[in-house]
Amino acid sequence: MWVNKSATGRSRKVKSQAQRYTAEFKRDAIALVRSSPHRNVTEIARELGVSPEGLRGWVKQDRTDRGEGRPGELTSAEREELTRLRRQTVEQQKTIEILRKAAACFAAETTR
Asked: Is 44 helix (H, G, I), strand (E, B) or coil?
């Protein structure tokens, strides 16, 4: 974290970059939450040094992945597939645009 002065002149702490955690760390944190029903997520998050919101998100995603989520919630595999398909769509749109421009260029040359 670093200190940033706002427009009002007050200092505030700002995170410089989002922390990335390994899959193993997340798995162990989720297991700790699941095996500690008498403790709340905030308490466990503080103990692990992660944000409570982040840990809650991991636990929620784990429930969804195990088929215990709300109807319509995407599993991790479905999220990954959706991300892959969106990237593929963007790439295909770029390719189509390039081909359109090339076709227009060739058409213009043949009419000269």
From this structure: helix
Q: Treating both helix axes as pointing N-terminal to C-terminal, what angle do 41-48 and 52-65 enclose, rounded to 10 degrees? A: 110
Q: Are 60 and 69 in contact (CB under 8 A)?
A: yes
Nearest to 2 by CA among 20, 11, 14, 10: 14
Q: How far is CA 61 from CA 8, 19, 27, 45, in A?
A: 39, 18, 11, 16
Nearest to 46 by CA among 34, 38, 54: 54
Q: What is the pTM of this model?
A: 0.63
- CB count, 10 Å around CB of 35? 8
Q: How confident is the model at residue 69 (pLDDT cuts 50, 70, 90)?
A: confident
The one-letter amino acid code at 70 reads R
How far, in Å, are 26, 92, 93, 96 from residue 104 at the CA level?
52, 18, 17, 12
Please, are residues 2 and 16 in contact by the beta-carbon 8 Å criterion?
A: yes
Extended beta strands in the chain, E state: 2-5, 11-14
